[in-house]
Amino acid sequence: MAAVTVIANPLAEKRDKVLLFQSSDATGSLRVEPRHLETLEFKLALGAVDAGSVPRPLANPSQLVSMVYKDTVAVYGITGKNDADLQLTMVSPVYHKIKVKPVSGALAGCALKTGGMKGEKGWLYVLFNDGGETKLGEWELSSSAVNKHTLNADKLSTSTQLHAVFDEISKKRWVVYQNTDNEVVILDAERNKGFTIDDTDRVAAKTPLALAIVPNIAEPKKRRLVTYFLAKSGKATNVLHFANTSLEYKDPSWEEVEEKPRPVPGINVLLPWAQIDTYVDENKKRTLVFGLQTKTEGEEPLFNVIDHVWTSLED
Question: Which branch of life, at top level (predicted)?
Fold first, then answer.
């Protein structure tokens, strides 16, 4: 699996740069790649070049997640060389094992950014074993302990990927997963309640998943939650699709025509075994979706960027 997570570069005063963290094929280590939002071109990647210098590699598969927590850009992954060895781990800026034992490489996370260091909170989501049954767990990060909550993920697929976002307005945590019917489900973690997106029962199994909250500057309550996944479009498979819903109301729904699943404009075919991630670019009113379109044998994956302008949400 090629894993990726994208976050704003905290050193960029104009919020015009991002840091792209990804897994290395050659070493199983973490690589970091700075990109400018004007060009989005690859320039260089930093990371270990010798597998022997990586004592505990990222698992294959393992998703990655990044967040600003305790005034630090923290990156988490699943490490381990086999299923019995899997471990939830902070992999940057320091290496730190977290006392959580996952059963797959699925991983998501989000953070409350406001309130200063004392008010900050972070949450991580993984699949774990509960008496022989695979369940979705939420771990709240703290300086003293990791607090676990089991979420009600109905018909959870053991091969699902995960993604999560935090809504700064409602203070809600949204998590997306795939169920055993291959439907895409949005989970309100605070209420522990799931909502199945209409017409996603034909999505391929093990699809990469991602969420993004698109703001509405004039009417903040009318911000939208956008879900990304891969599905068939005509004769093309693994085409990037999206569905979107208003967060103005208590429960999300996908009843209107413009809210239902459809392809992102253009035929954007992605490799299904690679993670996708999103970056909300408010300056240009677009969401950037990072995914893998091609992979050259023997070379590190080079993630592509799909530009999804917000006006298409209403088309």
Answer: Eukaryota
